[in-house]
Amino acid sequence: MSPLLELLLASGIVALGSLLQAASGLGAGLIVVPLLSMLSVDWVPGPCVAASLLLSWLMFWQGRQVVVHRHLGAMLGGLAAGIAIAASLLRQLPLDALGLVFGGLIVLAVLISLTPVRLPITRLSAGLTGISAGLIGTLAGIGAPILALFYQHERGPALRATLGLLYFLSSLVMLAALHSVGRFGSLEVGRSLQLFPGVMLGYWVSPRLAHWLDRGYSQIAVLAIALLSSTVLIGQSLLKLQS
Predict the structure, then answer these.
(1) Which segments cross the bilayer (predicted)?
(2) Is residue 85 within 8 Å of residue 143, measured between CB atoms?
(3) Residue from 172, 159, 179, 149 nearest 76 by CA
(4) Which terminus of the chain, N or C, has less C-beta within 10 A?
(5) pLDDT exceeds cutoff 80 at 88
(6) What Rg value do the Cα atoms of the chain yield, rounded?
């Protein structure tokens, strides 16, 4: 594959992911990372994370007036704790089996969300959600659905802006970690810049889809993508366990 064709395909993938993330609020890594990896492993994780950094900031900045600040500190503290716990356990746990557990927990959370029961929004629940997202995100690569499920009852603009802020801060920590182990240097920065036009294209065309979701479909989108994430996670774990 020629470098130009690879760049065009990578830009198209990122544009699609940006469209879905900017419109629904959910992280597009579930779609973008596997597809970019098929093109070249050089696109992940650093360039992909850096490109998402731009998108997350745009999502936050556009809705900065409606960010849900309630218990945000507890959420961020929980995220940091979850990432730290996962880092300490990374070499000790059977990650393939954990994928089944985490996927099952996400399915359970979705099913609970479909019932009339509404979980209380407290400092404790925010902290526990942050820990869960940090833990699952670090160990299994799918932490965004947990955050989105916590904020699923918020209005579309507030959902997108709050998740954008959380994604932005999480991505900064991730890039710092990648840089510390030599996985995000000048080469990765250059590739990140190549993905920015795709990010901007997806963000630019997202308002139409976001407007449709804001008519009452935001929660449906959150639950559907969370369920898809858990299905992919469970499927990946089963394949690894069988191999």
Answers:
(1) 43-60, 72-91, 97-114, 126-151, 157-177, 217-239
(2) no
(3) 172
(4) C
(5) no
(6) 17
Q: Which residues contact residue 84 at a Cβ distance below 8 angstroms, ignoring those fewer than 6 apart? A: 134
Residue recorded with tokens 């603009």: 157
Q: What tokens appear for 194 in the block?
A: 């190549």
Q: Which residues contact 217 (CB under 8 A, 6 or more apart)?
A: none
Q: How many CB atoms lie within 10 A of CB 53?
A: 20
Q: Is the full-model pTM beyond 0.90?
A: no
**Using an 8 Å Cβ cutoff, are 56 and 164 in contact?**
yes
| pLDDT at residue 90, as a whole number | 65
- Residue 193, pLDDT > 90, answer yes
What are the pLDDT digits (tens) for 166-186?
989 988 887 887 888 788 899
| Three-class DSSP labels, the chain | CCHHHHHHHHHHHHHHHHHHHHHHCCCCHHHHHHHHHHHCHHHCCHHHHHHHHHHHHHHHHHCHHHCCCCCHHHHHHHHHHHHHHHHHHCCCCCHHHHHHHHHHHHHHHHHHHCCCCCCCCCHHHHHHHHHHHHHHHHHHCCCHHHHHHHCCCCCHHHHHHHHHHHHHHHHHHHHHHHHHCCCCCHHHHHHHHHHHHHHHHHHHHHHHHHHHHCCCCHHHHHHHHHHHHHHHHHHHHHHHHHC
- Write the pLDDT tens digit of every residue in 114-161: 766 666 789 999 999 999 888 877 766 567 777 888 888 888 899 999
Domains of the chain by residue range: 3-242
